[in-house]
Specification:
Number of strands: 8
CATH topology: Aminopeptidase
Order of helices and strands: EEHHHEEEHEHEEH
CATH superfamily: Gcn5-related N-acetyltransferase (GNAT)
Largest sheet: 8 strands, mixed
Distance between the termini: 20 Å
Strand content: 25-35%
Shape: globular
Helix content: 25-40%
Length: 186
């Protein structure tokens, strides 16, 4: 995290903060990592290169949605997450990438998602959050289920990787469902 910058949202394991240029080199690495791209909602996506990742980073930072860097308590950037909000229907499509492999599968993504959902439901008064996840990304599905997300549908042969197709899972959580499983702020 940038020195002197206070975290915007605080979790047990992570802090979420608006990303500064310090996050950009990490973001570029994550957006060009074939293993991460394979688990994204568009596994056939080619690596973006520096310019493409920079363009995406700038677009997320300046866009209308929420976009946060995920930082350890020691200030190390490990990923990013955000939400595209539909104010009329009081819902958000959320996304998360824990790009640093050393922090995957250790609860950091779950903590970050819980912090984001608290903000969406308790801070912004939204009613629902939803996402789409590659069927093979079982680690992410477990994370989402811990946060109260339930399967809402399975899009058969929705994603193409090479010559094979796989399913994408639609998951959602209502504010009351999240509150039932959330241990609350640290």
């Amino acid at each position: 995290m940038r020195r002197g910058t206070m975290p915007y949202l605080v979790g047990e394991l992570v802090d979420l903060a608006p990303p500064g240029d310090d996050l950009l080199p990490y973001f570029v690495t994550w957006e060009n990592d074939p293993a991460l791209l394979r688990l994204s909602d568009s596994p056939s996506q080619a690596p973006r290169g520096w310019d493409g990742a920079r363009s995406m980073f700038d677009s997320l930072r300046s866009g209308p949605g929420l976009f946060f860097g995920i930082y350890t308590k020691g200030g190390h950037p490990i990923g990013y997450l955000g939400a595209n909000i539909d104010e009329r229907d009081r819902r958000a499509c959320v996304y998360i990438v824990v790009g640093d492999a050393g922090y995957q599968g250790r609860g950091y993504g779950t903590d970050a998602m819980r912090v984001l959902l608290r903000h969406l439901f308790d801070g912004l008064g939204l009613h629902r959050a939803y996402l789409f996840v590659h069927e093979s990304n079982q680690r992410a599905i477990r994370c989402y289920e811990k946060c109260g997300f339930v399967w809402e549908g399975r899009l058969r042969e929705h994603l193409r990787e090479g010559s094979t197709y796989s399913a994408e899972i639609a998951m959602g959580v209502l504010a009351d469902e999240f509150r039932a499983v959330d241990p609350g702020p640290p």
